[in-house]
Each structure stands twice: as C-alpha cells, then as structure tokens.
Design a protein that fits this description.
By secondary structure, the chain is an alpha/beta fold. It is 40% helix and 18% strand. It binds nicotinamide-adenine-dinucleotide, (2S)-2-hydroxybutanedioic acid (LMR) and magnesium ion (MG).
C-alpha cells in the first residue's frame, strides 16, 4: 500500500473544538500524526501544521472528516513530496569564489584563454582542466518514464533530477539532467553526440524500446566516452545481484531454475541476456501477447534474438499460464498483472521480483504470503531491487579509470560486487540485496568495475589506488 506524508494547516476555534478531537478524527480516518507545529498561537483560535502519514487511498476521506468537524478551518494541505520538488532538486555551484579582479582574471578572461589554448593543443587535457572527468549527462526523451510510459520531456525531469541527486550523494558524480524534445532516433543520436564534449559519460534513461537499443549501440560505437542505458543494464545488473543471493536463500542453482521475465522492453531484454550469460537454461520471456517462444518469428529484433536462443522455451502461453511451475518471476512491465492465485501456482520456494515502478506487477501484501523471496523496485518494502544500486558505482568506476566502454565483464563484476555486500551470515528472505545507503555498495562496485575495465583493456587510466598493488587498496 502506498503512503503519503501530508501537512495539514488547520485553524482551530477553541470554543468549538479541542486538539484532542482533531487528533482522534485523524486517527479514526487511518492517519498517523508524526509532528505538530504551532504556527500562530492565540486565546480564541490557533493555527497549526499537523504532519500526517496516511495511506494514499485514505487521504480524501481523512480530509473530508476534518472539514466536517465544527470549529475547524482547513487552510491548506501540502504534500511533502511536492514540497521537496519546489524549484527543482539540484543546482550548479562554483568550486571557488570570485572575490576580486585578480580572481576574475584567473577564472575568466584573460587567464582562462591560456587554459583554452592548452586544451586546444592537447584535447586530453579536458579531463584535467574541465568538469569532464566527473560529469555525466542523464539523457531522456521522456518516452518510458518509470512505468508511466510516454509522458514527455518536461514531465520526465523530476526523475532525471532525482537520478542526478543520487549520482552526487552516493558517488560524488556531477550529473546533469537533459530532457530532449524529440523521439527521432537519428536526432537523439545527433544531439547527444553534439553535447558530449563536456561530459565524461552518458547515462541514457527512460527511452522506450526498441529505439533505446539502436540509440545506445550507435552512441557506444561513435563516442569515446562510456554510454550506458540504465534501464537496460543497470536493471539487469541489480537483478542478477538479487537473484544470485535469492537462489542461495532458497537453495536452488541458476542452471536448474525456470525463469519467467515479463515485459521484454529495455529492462527485460537486457535482463534476459544477462540471465543467459549467467547460466539460466530455461527462460520464458513474456510480453503483452504472451510468451516469446523459441522458433517464433517476431518483428522486434531483440525478441527475434531471444526466439533464436536454445534456452528459451518453445511452449506458447499467456503470463498466467506460463507462470505455473516457474521458480523465478521477474517483472519489468507494468502494475497489477498478477494475483495471489497466480503466484501460488509457481514452484515451491518461489522467487518474485515485481519491479515495475511505481506500482509493482503484484501488490506486496498479496504476494508475500505465497512466495519465499519477494522484492520490488520501491524503497518502502524490504529487498529494493532498483538500478540505483548500480549506476552510481558503475559510473564512479568508469570515470575514475576513464573507461571507453562499460562492457559485459564490467557489468558482471558489478553484479557480483553488489551481491557480495550481503554476507552469507546476513542473507535471508528479507535481505537479499544491500540498502542503497550501505556505503560499501559504491566502493565495492567501483573497485570491481575498475578491475574488470583494466583486465579487458578498456581503461585508459589506472587510478592512484590501483597503481602500486595491482588492485584497489
Ligand atoms: N526497479 C528498477 O530498477 C527498474 C529499472 C528499470 C525499469 N523498471 C520498471 O520496469 C518497467 C519497464 O521499464 P522499461 O524501461 O523496460 O520500459 P519499456 O517501455 O522499454 O518496456 C516495457 C515492456 O513491457 C511490456 N508490457 C506492457 N504491458 C505488458 C503486459 N501487460 N504484459 C507483458 N508485458 C507488458 C511492453 O510491451 C514493453 O515491451 C517500468 O515499470 C519501469 O519502472 C524498474
Ligand atoms: O527510476 C527508478 O526508480 C528505476 C528505473 O530507472 C525505472 O525506470 O523505473
Ligand atoms: Mg528508468
């Protein structure tokens, strides 16, 4: 169930109502008061801000029940989530102040000209003399934003700003949101190439399938900085990390399990590829029209690729049919597609990762009693399988070793690193994946990614902490 935090600004007329009555009305309507601030005290009346934690579905009735109390005026209702977005969530800060003319002539003209000339003579110096080495573009066209779909570039911005915040807070990477007002593959490629000189890496985000595949492949070929479509590979990496640990909990081996992946878009394609690379031998990819089967013919090039793989099952069926006897369900599709009866028909000790955002394929309350390990992409339930565990550390590593690409061995190394943060002793049904606030995650992912980049020859710089020992200290 989704909860919100509301701030209710109320004026209370003391002769008609006391605070106790207000508090019990809130509680009867299902709200939990988390704080009270007196905004204007007074003899006859007072104004207070009451912060209430309440289920989304109970919000309207809570507000109505307060309005119906005599002696109360509801002045304002603010949603704390919206308040957190006022004016946007990030800003650009200078690294040093400009206090006098001397500073001015150093950071700007005339001093800056010598630095420009130096970069012109040796373009590699852009890495040491500009923000390039630590800056990533988070680029979307707004066509597959979370599970909300094609909501356009303006509406996509809050997600991109959120990713930029996470890049900075978790890995010290400066990320900038770029929301493009075009859905044309060639124009997107051209635009990203044109803006790339200032960036050390490109994080593609929420670009719908199948255009996302060509956009990423072409950019990776044509640019000399890493290009990473987070919804494809970030998601696949975190799924593999979670699955490696979940399989340990249920005592099954990856080669033996039957895996259903629902939603063969950006995330689903990459997850299927990585599952096959990790050893899955029985795979059932499913999209809107049911299972994608071995030997089938599909217009979508990635679906066709899957249909040509020997590990993909050849039995057709709807999701509700093919989920029978599955050991693992991975959902990267959309909300509310399964119910309790569906997951009950899975094999014993089943694993369900219902990762559609913001609402998963099955409500946690409905699934949890019937499955052994359950995870979502959300932060308000145990086992948050979200690509936020991946992109900060992967880019931290790629930037630090100036990797030209983020390749398969780097991704697999990242998945293993994330899984390894949960020790065998700590591992259980409720804890298969580390918290995003576990500082070891970025450290371990960075280290493993750099090692893999060096080994595969894509690193163009050995970071200082890898120089003497041949590995991170
Ligand atoms: N938890 C995470 O880290 C994470 C990461 C990436 C994506 N996601 C979520 O996964 C979902 C898909 O994201 P994406 O970027 O791959 O989007 P996408 O648009 O590229 O792919 C979605 C796919 O789901 C399919 N689909 C839609 N309805 C379906 C249905 N009823 N049954 C089966 N398939 C259906 C679509 O045809 C499409 O192929 C979104 O909800 C997104 O929020 C979660
Ligand atoms: O943004 C997220 O929470 C994860 C993911 O990138 C998604 O598109 O849902
Ligand atoms: Mg996304």
């Amino acid at each position: 169930m989704a909860f919100n935090s509301l701030i209710l600004r109320l004026e209370l007329v003391h002769s008609k109502v006391n605070f106790g009555e207000v508090a019990s009305a809130i509680s009867r309507a299902g709200g939990d008061i988390t704080s009270i601030d007196v905004i204007r005290p007074g003899q006859d009346s007072s104004v207070r801000d009451i912060t209430v934690h309440v289920a989304e579905i109970a919000e309207a009735s809570l507000i109505e029940s307060l309005k119906s109390l005599a002696g109360i005026q509801l002045i304002n209702v603010s949603d704390r989530t919206f308040l957190a977005h006022l004016g946007g969530k990030i800003s650009v800060q200078p690294n040093l102040p400009i206090k006098n003319r001397d500073d001015l002539s150093r950071v700007y003209t005339p001093g800056v000209a010598r630095v420009c000339t130096s970069i012109h003579e040796n373009p590699k110096k852009a890495y040491s003399l500009t923000i390039k080495r630590n800056t990533v573009a988070v680029v979307t066209d707004g066509t597959a934003v979370l599970g909300l779909g094609d909501i356009g570039p303006h509406a996509a911005a809050p997600v991109m700003e959120g990713k930029a915040m996470l890049f900075k807070q978790l890995a010290g990477v400066d990320a900038f949101p770029i929301c493009l007002d075009t859905k044309d593959t060639e124009e997107i490629i051209r635009t990203i190439k044109a803006i790339s000189p200032i960036f050390g890496g490109i994080n593609l985000e929420d670009i719908s399938s199948p255009r996302c595949f060509e956009i990423e492949t072409r950019l990776a070929e044509e640019l000399d900085i890493p290009v990473f479509h987070d919804d494809q590979h970030g998601t696949a990496v975190v799924v593999i990390a979670g699955l490696l640990n979940a399989l340990k909990v249920v005592g099954k081996r990856i080669e033996n399990v039957r895996v259903v992946v629902n939603g063969i878009g950006a995330a689903g394609v990459s997850i299927c590829k990585m599952l096959l690379a990790a050893g899955v031998s029985r795979l059932v990819p499913v999209d809107r029209d049911g299972a994608i089967i071995q030997g089938g013919t599909y217009p979508h090039p990635m679906w066709q690729w899957l249909a040509d793989q020997p590990q993909v099952e050849s039995q057709p069926g709807t999701l509700k049919e093919v989920i029978r006897d599955a050991d693992v369900f991975i959902g990267v599709s959309r909300a509310n597609l399964l119910n309790a009866a569906d997951v009950q028909r899975m094999a014993a000790n089943s694993i369900v990762f219902a990762m559609a955002n913001p609402q998963p394929e099955i409500a946690p309350e409905e699934a949890i009693p019937h499955v052994r390990v359950f995870a979502t992409g959300r932060s308000d339930y145990p086992n948050q399988i979200n690509n936020v565990l991946v992109f900060p550390g992967i880019f931290r590593g790629a930037l630090d070793c100036r990797a030209r690409h983020i390749n398969e061995p780097m991704k697999l190394a990242a998945a293993r690193a994330i899984a390894s943060v949960v020790s065998e002793r700590e591992l259980n049904e409720q804890y298969i994946i580390p918290s995003i606030f576990n500082e070891q995650v970025v450290t371990e992912v960075r280290k493993s990614v750099i090692e893999a980049a060096i080994l595969t020859g894509t690193a163009r710089r050995i970071p200082p902490d890898f120089r003497s020992s041949g590995g991170a200290k």
